[in-house]
């Protein structure tokens, strides 16, 4: 599998899992939260019209435009990756950005201002979703790979 195909496959898998779990969360937790492990892990339906950690509330259109730029850039760059781990990282970040962008587009009352559906609540982290997890894991892997590559030079 070439690197562009790997990037797009990983991204598509993340988007599919993200959207399926959001659909499930919207129906399963509409009546209220469900404790999975006491207060440590709770499934709680939250609609976030802002950015990470509920910051930048009311900036949905700006966030959506930034997400569009990120998605287009990563799709274009995905063909230039030299290593499969780079393609994997691009796929995780692309899938996370696209998953949340889909909420901004398809869950909107106006132009690009839809709220992102979050539903996983760990006691020490604000409520998040599969797309957020993918973005975070992709960013951490990108940083780790960057540090490892610099250490080898």
Intertermini distance: 28 Å
Low-confidence stretches: none
Give the radius of gyration: 16 Å
Sketch the major β-sheet.
4 strands, antiparallel
Structure, explained:
The protein has 153 residues and is of the alpha+beta class. It has one domain. It is built from four helices and four strands; from the N terminus they run αββααββα. It has a four-stranded antiparallel β-sheet with strand order 1-2-3-4. Strand 3 and strand 4 form a beta hairpin. Helix 1 runs parallel beside helix 3, helix 2 runs antiparallel to helix 3 and helix 3 runs antiparallel to helix 4. The longest helix has 26 residues. The radius of gyration is 16 Å and the shape is globular. The model has no long low-confidence stretch (mean pLDDT 90).
Essential attributes:
globular, 4 strands, alpha+beta
Short description:
The protein is α+β, with helices and mostly antiparallel strands and 153 residues long. The protein is 59% helix and 15% strand. It has one domain (3-147).
Topology summary:
Blueprint lengths: L2 H26 L5 E4 L3 E8 L11 H18 L6 H23 L9 E7 L2 E4 L1 H23 L1
Antiparallel strand pairs: 1-2, 2-3, 3-4
Helix pairs in contact: 1-3, 2-3, 3-4
